[in-house]
Amino acid sequence: MGLFDFLKTKKNTASIAKERLRIIVAQERTSRGAPDYLPLLQRELLEVIRKYVSVDVDAVKVDLVKDGEHDVLDISVALPEGRPATA
């Protein structure tokens, strides 16, 4: 019975690896179809945000997401914790 348990574990590992590969392929397809202006837009947004808040380069993420017939610009900004509240 222990031998069969080992084979089941291998099968689960293979399915996990297959799922990870699907995610990587999906990300590659998304980035290939992305417009050329997205990296420039990301840099410019970072410059503007840095005028007001100190953030890392990786704090700004810009992606183009398909929503049915429409392309949606998804912008995510990770702000540092402990920033002062504005009135």
From TrEMBL:
Question: Gene3D superfamilies this protein is in?
Answer: Cell division topological specificity factor MinE
| Molecular function terms, GO-annotated | identical protein binding
Record keywords: Cell cycle included? yes
Alphabetical list of InterPro entries matching this protein: MinE, MinE_sf
For this UniProt record, the keywords arranged alphabetically read as follows:
Cell cycle, Cell division
Q: Its GO biological process terms?
A: cell division; regulation of division septum assembly
Provide the family line. Answer: Belongs to the MinE family.
HAMAP family assigned: MinE
Q: What does this protein do?
A: Prevents the cell division inhibition by proteins MinC and MinD at internal division sites while permitting inhibition at polar sites. This ensures cell division at the proper site by restricting the formation of a division septum at the midpoint of the long axis of the cell.
Query: What's the protein called, per UniProt?
Result: Cell division topological specificity factor
Q: Which organism is it from?
A: Luteimonas marina
